[in-house]
Amino acid sequence: MPPSAASARESSLALVKGRTPLFWLNERWKADPAKLPAIDAEVEAAASRLLRNKGVLAALFPELAATQGEIESPLLCANRLQHTVHADAAQDGHWFLKADHALPVAGSVKARGGFHEVLAFAEALAAEHGIEGANVVRLISPEARALLARYTVTVGSTGNLGLAIGLISAALGFKAVVHMSTDAKEWKKARLRARGVEVVEHTGDYATAVEAGRQAAESDPYSYFVDDEASHLLFAGYAVAAQELVGQLAEAGRTVDAEHPLFVYLPCGVGGAPGGICYGLRTLLGEHVHCFFVEPVASPCVLVQLASGGAEPLSVYDVGLDNRTEADGLAVGQASLLVCERIADRVSGVITVSDEQLYAALLLMKHAQGIDLEPSACAGVMGPLSLLRTAAGRDYVVRRGLQDKLHNATHVIWTTGGSLVPPAEHERFESIARRMCGPDAALNDFFPPRSNHATPALRNFQ
Ligand SMILES: *Cc1c(COP(=O)(O)O)cnc(C)c1O
């Protein structure tokens, strides 16, 4: 490595290690990424699977009766948020919230991937044992329940994936075991136990919980392990969300094409949910959709993995970070290598945010939009201003030749969790937010336009 490259690497690493909120542009982004037909087929299969199991979900969960079993969330107008942060539609485009915090049953984006994977396993078992008929009859028949009850579905999680997998598994009649990391919140454990799910608590981080689940499942032929770090079925389930969003944008009269760019901001943990959604959107909308992942400054695992440029795992611990953040759903030290490989030429970049910014965003969403989110789910709120008001963001816009098109743009902030959080916990979030941000916090102080320091652009490490 020449000395100049070595020092650029050192300064990039120092920025990451210093917990500075960053804007990293993905140099490997391609307008026309390599086609991956096998994965496209998996995503199509996932869409059909969710469709044919609507009746099953509606029968299992009364809260899904209204939507006939569809796992969908609304696309909400965010103009009050936009107004509060002084972003004006004539200049900054139209902002929306993709409200996965309100996804039925599981209350987070994890319902998409998680329900899909457990339904796929149930279908496979029914087929293998010759249980015939349409799913709505065969998967909830006494015969199927007796069969599924012989199997255990196991998962390791910081909380929300455990909630989604545990709830659907128990409802279908499986035994369910959820290995939880220290980050996991008590109410999530209590909710699972109340539905008959076994919760195993670990003192380690997310990776420890996943590994414990993997080990426990490996030794038991009647055990099925949902592998958040490397699951094709989770990824495909998340990717189906792209079709839903594209339909909703059309209904809202928002065009997406060369003159009308779409920007999407996705809170990111291990990478599965944002990765799947990004993959699906790039497949449907090509170069006209720009997906940014948003990670906590202490846990930027996808940034670290992608910026390393290599296929060898590199964790946030390897670069000197501690993976300690209030955003429990995003507290992941090592990104999924499977996901990083699939999105390496599709994702536009990664934005990192401090816990203070997350809590400022939480207050903002509560007061401007009347929506209660969990801290992890607020990560995307910082996205549009990071793009529109920082030097690194503007650099991205110029590189893609979009500077004259921003007034036509649509920005979608994906809000990924929070509707199941108990009221007392929301009150706790709010009091932490007030303490962190100051009692009379001028929320704009936490957003790029009013802060004088430009968010630094980050170079790759290699
Ligand atoms: C899990 C989670 C994410 C991110 O999903 P990953 O697949 O871990 O990247 C985002 N927001 C919330 C609320 C989550 O629970």
Structure commentary:
With 462 residues, the protein is α/β, with parallel strands linked by helices. Helix content is 45%, strand content 12%. The protein is built from 20 helices and 12 strands. The strands form 2 sheets. It has an 8-stranded mixed sheet with strand order 2-3-11-8-9-10-1-12, with helices on both faces. α13 packs across α14 (272-285) and α18 packs across α19. Residues 449-454 have low confidence and may be disordered. The protein binds pyridoxal-5'-phosphate.
Low-confidence stretches: 449-454
How would the global form be characterised? Answer: globular
Count of runs of 4 or more consecutive helical residues? 20
* Distinct small molecules bound, one entry per kind: pyridoxal-5'-phosphate
Cα distance, first to last residue? 9 Å
- Major sheet description: 8 strands, mixed
Estimated structural class = alpha/beta
Spatial order of strands in the largest sheet: 2-3-11-8-9-10-1-12
Strand content: 5-15%
The count of DSSP E runs of length 2 or more, i.e. the number of strands, is 12
Q: Mind telling me the C-alpha Rg?
A: 21 Å
On the 0-100 scale, what is the average pLDDT?
91
- Helix percent reads 40-55%
The oligomeric state is single chain
